[in-house]
């Protein structure tokens, strides 16, 4: 079985947020993205307004970070990363 190359896209919101991360957090984020590419269903699928959005939670420097993404067979779209506080509110605001 040949392995398909998965395309990874980032929203502007995601790009802005990762600029504020430390080197350690970026390294942990890279590992989280690799996990999502390998198994896109690793995150929890959301319901209601955020149907089709998955959120993967991972620890970085003893802090829990949430990574929101959408996926299909060929790609992963990284929507947003952040701490839990106001995460879903901001995600919904930016989904519209």
What name does CATH use for the topology?
A: YaeB-like fold
The number of distinct helices, counting runs of at least 4 residues, comes to: 3
Mean pLDDT: 93
Poorly predicted ranges (pLDDT <50, ≥5 residues)?
A: none
Structural shape: globular
Write the CATH homologous superfamily.
RelE-like
CATH class: Alpha Beta
End-to-end CA span: 39 Å
Provide the succession of SSEs.
EHHEEEEH
Strand order of the largest sheet: 1-5-4-3-2
The appropriate CATH architecture is 2-Layer Sandwich
Cα-atom radius of gyration: 13 Å
Strand share of the residues? Answer: 25-35%
User: Pairing-aware structural class of the strands and helices?
Assistant: alpha+beta
Largest sheet: 5 strands, mixed
| Fraction of helical residues | 25-40%
Q: Tally the beta strands.
A: 5
Whole-number total of structural domains: 1
Explain the overall architecture:
By secondary structure, the protein is an alpha+beta fold. The protein has a single domain (7-95), classed as YaeB-like fold (2-Layer Sandwich). 33% of the residues lie in helices and 31% in strands. It is built from 3 helices and 5 strands. It has helices at 12-18, 23-38, 87-95, and strands at 7-10, 44-45, 54-60, 63-71, 75-82. Strands 1-5-4-3-2 form a 5-stranded mixed sheet. A hairpin with a 2-residue loop joins strand 3 (54-60) and strand 4.
What are the key terms here?
96 residues, alpha+beta, YaeB-like fold
């Amino acid at each position: 079985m040949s392995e398909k190359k998965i395309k990874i896209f980032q929203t502007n919101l995601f790009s802005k947020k990762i600029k504020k991360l430390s080197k350690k957090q970026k390294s942990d984020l890279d590992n989280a993205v690799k996990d999502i590419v390998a198994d896109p269903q690793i995150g929890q699928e959301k319901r209601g307004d955020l149907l089709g959005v998955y959120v993967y939670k991972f620890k970085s420097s003893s802090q829990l970070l949430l990574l929101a993404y959408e996926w299909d067979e060929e790609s992963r779209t990284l929507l947003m990363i952040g701490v839990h506080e106001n995460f879903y509110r901001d995600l919904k605001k930016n989904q519209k």
